[in-house]
Amino acid sequence: MGLVVAENITKVYSVVATKVSKDYQSGEIAIRALNEVSFEIEPASFVSFVGPSGSGKTTLLNLIGCLDKPTKGKLKVAGTDVLHLDRKQSASFRGNNIGFIFQDFNLIPVLTVYENIEYPLLMVQNIPGGERKKRILTMLDAVGMIDQKDKYPDQISGGQKQRVAIARALVTNPKLVLADEPTANLDHKTAFLVLESMKKMRNEFQTTFIFSTHDQKIVGEAEIIYNLEDGELVGKQVKGGKTNA
Amino acid sequence: MRNLSKIAIRNLLRYKRRTLLTASLVTIGVIFVLLFISISGSFKNMMVGQMTDSMLGHLEVHRKGYLASIDNLPLNLNLKLQAYQKLEGILKKEPEVEAFSPRIKFGGMFSTFVETTNVRLNGVYTDAEFKTVPLLTSRIIKGAKTLNKGEILIPDLLAAGMKVNVGDTVVVIATNKDGSINGKQFKVAGVLESITGPGGRDGYIHFEDAMAVLRMEEMEVSEVAIRLKDFGQLHAFSDKLERLLSGEVNKQGKPIYEVSTWEKLSPFYNVARMIDAMAFFIKLMLIAVVLVSIMNVMIMAVYERIREIGTIAAIGTRPGKILSMFVLEGLFLGTMGALAGDLIGGVIILILNRVGITFDFGRQTGLVLSATIAPFDVLMISIIVIFISVVASLQPAFKASRMEPIKALRHV
Fold this sequence. Notes:
The complex is a heterodimer. Chain A is α/β, with parallel strands linked by helices. Chain A has 8 helices and 11 strands. Chain A has helices at residues 2-8, 57-64, 87-97, 113-124, 129-142, 158-170, 188-205, 216-219; strands spanning 15-26, 29-41, 46-50, 72-77, 80-81, 98-101, 176-180, 208-213, 224-229, 232-238, 243-244. In chain A, helix 5 crosses helix 6. Chain A starts with a helix and ends with a strand. In chain B, the strands form 2 sheets. In chain B, strands 2-3-8-5-7-6 form a 6-stranded mixed beta barrel. A two-stranded antiparallel sheet of chain B has the order 11-12. Chain B is elongated, with a radius of gyration of 31 Å. By secondary structure, chain B is an alpha+beta fold. Chain B folds into 2 domains: 2-51 and 270-410, no CATH class; 65-255, no CATH class. Chain B has 13 helices and 12 strands. Classes of the chains: A alpha/beta, B alpha+beta. The interface between A and B is medium-sized, with 30 and 23 residues.
């Protein structure tokens, strides 16, 4: 009986992309930013999309983050077909399932570190006060920013800002976190510290982390690396495993 | 809402100078409107009060057709005794009426035995007249503040021109409606200050003296001036009185009476309407100032925060909340400007009253204006400013809420 149940369970991937393409219109010319990209990302993975500038990394992350829609193909994020979500549904889906970490940190300047982390809980998920406070303090502690909680973004360093951004992305208990070039504006030492924080959070909260980078030194930190070139997936490396071309 | 408000206020404080400048613009607009309304409104109320309380009464009843010929003071269009008694009976029963005064109005000759000139006179019952137009006594600048039989109150222009003083004997000569001339001696009891408006340069004698001069065997009345307990009831009572009198018709089936409020009787009503129109246009200007300044600052705020809008939209903030965030900024900006304007405007009005503004109107000089503004007007102006601030924020806020997060995040 137990065996039958196990066989019926469909594996829920964090992301399933099937022949996903994305075209942009530039004047009268259509530019294909992504060309029939297919991949699957398992939960709690630490994945990186690597490639030169213009290879389609940001486009792919935007599609996974429901900030944009594919021109062709199928895309499932956290088990949901995101192709047919309207504007409000997309916002709600992002708020409940996806955390974002931006290259420029994108903290809200008029809110303190504490309030920045509180923002998605308060304004998106409407989490009650007690639970909210508990989660924020846990996150602040996890990213080592508890002492800086009352400071405003312009009073902390770049590395600290990115740690706050990580905490903000994770505080909503998302199924996956997307980070577009999260270390581009940081020095190498800080960049590794930030990646270390991300990995630590992945281990602690079992959240899927997907980040893009063109920095070869940073790439090595990922456990699964997808290589993108001219909008096409040209390779996959699994750390300690085989390489698919 | 509390959290949206917190963010909105902090965003306003983020650009302190700009917020202060915009709020100041709104504040200055509110101050000017309050000052204009208080000064012009007080001027209007003062002039209206002076006319109704010292000459016209709040409303008047004439025989139908009298008003069209009022400049000629026709004696053949007076209300007959029976018609007056009917009207008197009605007015005595109406609780809105504080007092009423029957008058005979006629034109005649005024002679000092040396010189003769024209004069317009009102024959009145002193007590009734003083109750109906209580400021009349304050216009008596020389002599006793009363009027007995055989006495006359004359306007100061006449007194100065004819070199007549209180206590002098004069003769009034008039033609009655049959064309016969009659004269009567009077003692000058007092001199009246002339004021602007109809009847502002008329003299007064006792009603019975007027009947004697005009050789009336039976009481006739040119007009009945009415004073109400509450001036605010003017139009309601006027309508009511018209209804009550509408059943009274002559042999030809035409109405006997004609009810007129002070507005119909005084040309100052047009000035008052012009003041109201100017106040309206000043309010429109305020609306334009608020609309343009708030909209300008909100457009700037949205433009400067495009990436921020992209960020909060990306992390799942619903469009409605983004819209509310910007609308609240406009709301607070408008509220701040309106409250500061109310406060400073109020203080300036107090100072103006302490200093005392004097002005001349017509032949009247040194009139002291007490600028006042009704709390309702302050409230209305504040509500208009706040409402317009919200309206002005709507377009930029809507634009912010409709922004595609992906485009907003790419904005440099």
